[in-house]
Amino acid sequence: AEVCRRSAQLAHNTARTDSTVGTVVIAARGPAYLSGTGFGIDTLRRVVPVALADTNAMRQAFEEGLVRAAERFHAAGKRVILVLGVPEMGFLPDECLVGRPLGLRRIRKPCAISRTAFDRRNAAYRDMVARIREHAPAIEVFDPTSIFCDAVLCRATDGQALLYSDGNHLALAGSRRVAARLLPM
């Protein structure tokens, strides 16, 4: 937790003071910061490096911290893009591959979560982001949902490659898809 805090502080200070940085991209696993827990296989594991007994206090701290960070970057003349988190899969993507030896494990099909589960998990976070934008309209928002989800499923694979390295981190193939859409901004 201390390593995370220090590295985040260093990144913020560098982005704020480095004149070669014109745009700051903020990405966070928002639903985890609002609930304090993960999703699916991570549900019982604390995934946020702070522990507040009061979930409302944690939500308020996250929201205020996000607004404060954006305000500091704006004050330093930076453009701020908030990337809404990629869908959390809640399972390990390698469950979608043929197991070894001899494929003796059940393969997850589909290699996806339901869009309903994704929407439910992200509702409070998206409401919070909408509130923030009312008070700080200069924060631009990039939503990667359509890269992974249609109306029914959010997929961890594109049919050829795994897009995730675990239940909530992208593999290179997934990162490239997001970058291709984000870079034009």
Written description of the protein model:
The chain has 185 residues and is mostly helical. The chain has 6 helices and 5 strands. It has a 3-stranded parallel β-sheet. The longest helix has 21 residues, at 55-75. It is globular. The relative contact order is 0.16. The model has no long low-confidence stretch (mean pLDDT 86).
What order do the helices and strands come in, and which of them pair?
Elements: H1 2-17, E1 23-27, H2 30-35, H3 55-75, E2 79-83, E3 112-114, H4 115-135, E4 140-142, H5 145-148, E5 153-155, H6 172-182
Parallel strand pairs: 1-2, 2-4
Antiparallel strand pairs: 3-5
Write a brief caption for the model.
By secondary structure, this protein is mainly alpha-helical. It contains six helices and five strands; from the N terminus they run H-E-H-H-E-E-H-E-H-E-H.
* Fraction of residues in H or I helices: 40-55%
Strand content: 5-15%
Low confidence ranges: none
Shape: globular
Multimeric organization: single chain
Q: Give the total of beta strands.
A: 5
Please report the number of helical segments. Answer: 6
> Can you give the mean pLDDT?
86
Strand order, sheet with most strands = 1-2-4
Largest sheet: 3 strands, parallel
Distance between the termini: 32 Å
Radius of gyration: 18 Å
Structural class, by secondary structure, is mainly alpha
Q: What is the helix/strand order?
A: HEHHEEHEHEH
